[in-house]
Design goal:
Rossmann fold, two-stranded antiparallel sheet, globular, alpha/beta, 6-stranded parallel β-sheet, 7 helices
Length: about 180
């Protein structure tokens, strides 16, 4: 049987980044639990061609590879930093290059980071509707982490780790369904 592919995408250009650390942690936990092939990217991996791209065809090789990995994944972990209550423009531009049919029915675990609790609803008011437009299946438990949940780029909050565990548990239904359809 072919191993299912999980792709994590962080909407951050910064390295190191709390958003990337969160996406990596979630992806690692899910890939270990469900024996998934894992890849994790951030906007630095996408590169500079993103800013000039009007379509997928305008992306350079590196950016196209990241986009192809995202649309070719069986499951996604998408995380974004929060700037002024929403996701960054270049993250949205990357998502705008994806055809809605390319994400239809794809399970997506959504996550965000921000400086404080004021941004906590970003996952519900920004990310969930964005992926709803694509007719993707955002799992019920979304993850939000603030600066106090980290020490450097390490997750130190027991409550955050527990919430991540709940969200990864919710992927089980999608993993088993995809494994069943792949085995047919």
């Amino acid at each position: 049987m072919t191993q299912l592919k999980l792709v994590g995408l962080s909407g951050s250009y910064g390295r190191p980044s709390k958003t990337s650390a969160l996406v990596e942690h979630i992806a690692e936990l899910a890939s270990d639990r469900y024996d998934l092939e894992k890849s994790v990217f951030d906007l630095t991996d996408v590169g500079d061609s993103l800013g000039l791209a009007k379509s997928q065809a305008d992306l350079d090789t590196d950016a196209a590879a990241v986009l192809n990995a995202v649309v070719g994944a069986d499951l996604l972990v998408i995380g974004s930093p929060t700037y002024k209550g929403s996701y960054p423009g270049m993250f949205k531009h990357f998502i705008d290059l994806i055809d809605p049919e390319q994400l239809r029915g794809k399970p997506v675990l959504i996550a965000a980071t921000g400086g404080g609790e004021r941004h906590a609803l970003m996952v519900e008011h920004q990310l969930r509707p964005l992926f709803g437009f694509f007719m993707a299946h955002t799992i019920p438990t979304a993850i939000y982490a603030s600066n106090r949940d980290f020490s450097g780029s390490e997750i130190v909050s027991p409550a955050l780790r527990e919430r991540i565990g709940f969200a990864v548990d919710e992927l089980a239904a999608f993993v088993s369904r995809k494994q069943e359809s792949a085995g047919e």
